[in-house]
Amino acid sequence: MTASATIDLGGVTVDRVVEMEFPFATVPQLFVDVSDEEVAPHRAALEPWALDPESGRLIIAVQSYLVRTLHHTILIDTCVGCEKTSTFLPAWHMRRDRSWLDRLAAAGVQPEAVDFVMCTHLHSDHCGWNTQRIDGRWAPTFPNARYVMTRREVEAAEARGAAQWEESIAPVIAAGQALLVDGDHALDDQVRFEPTPGHTPGHVAVGLAGTTRQAVMCGDLIHSPIQCAQPDWRYRNDADPQEALRTRRAFLEAGSESGRLVLTAHFPAPSMGRVVTEGEAFGFEFV
Q: pTM of the full predicted structure?
């Protein structure tokens, strides 16, 4: 897996740290009441980079974003992780692949150097490397970092419970490294949470303000480029589908007007681009 180019926003740089990229699932498997016939008009625009022609599966990335400002080294989301319990996808259950840490090191950062871990939400593929097993117990992977999470999201994750809470979230809180905040929390004048609820109750995007460019890491408010063309398609795992739809449309409309660079959680490489208006829907222009 090749390294991605560094994006310079002016005093803020961004690198992708990719854990995996693969054909994930078909559109009807991911979106409620969507048929193969409805997908057909979009295939030409998506194949082969975002839709595998042979299997018909959407290609997704699982990745983090490494953000370096003049003052802080920040990770946004931490992927699936290693030795984690997964009831969502068998291939993710008890993974032994630690190459994500190698890719972080290749970008010039060791875990000890991370100042903040910012979680857009607390699904298993976004907080897995929050912790790792050390001497038989779960401990924070980033020993000097504060883990910034919204209170509402932590409450929802605790209510769901299960292994994900015990393995990837509770150990961070027990270590005293959790910073629980509101959904519009500003880390400083360059990095802030932006409330984007719907996929989960406390879901946030992360806005980045450089001196020359603006960007936003959108988390899971949108999963695939096909949702730009079809923003009303309901993703099966949205906690509140109607709120997710409103959030997604508002985000796409604002993005098409502002031209902010969008850093996506799951779009395939290069994963970053701009939202553009296309008729009554939207498109995505990659950088």
A: 0.96
pLDDT of residue 108: 97
d(CA 84, CA 253): 37
Q: Where are the domains of the chain?
A: 7-217
Phi, psi of 22 (to 5 degrees): -165, 160
With a cut of 80, say whether residue 4 has pLDDT above it.
no
Write the single-letter amino acid at 140: P
Show the tokens assigned to 74. Answer: 């920040």
* Phi, psi at 79, each rounded to 5°: 65, -155
| DSSP single-letter state for residue 131 | E
What φ, ψ does residue 102 adopt, rounded to 5°?
Answer: -65, -40
Cα angle value 93/27/207 (rounded, 5°)? 75
User: Residue 2: is its pLDDT beyond 70?
Assistant: no
Strand order in 57-68's β-sheet?
Answer: 7-8, 13-26, 57-68, 73-76, 116-118, 146-150, 178-181
Rounded-to-integer distance, Cα 4 and Cα 236, Å: 30
Q: Which of 10, 268, 48, 278 is nearest to 286 (CA)?
A: 268
- Domain 7-217, classified CATH 3.60.15.10, yes or no: yes
Predicted pLDDT at 161: 84
Q: Which burial class, exposed, middle or buried, applies to 161 when counting CB atoms under 10 A from its CB (0-12, 13-18, 19+)?
A: exposed
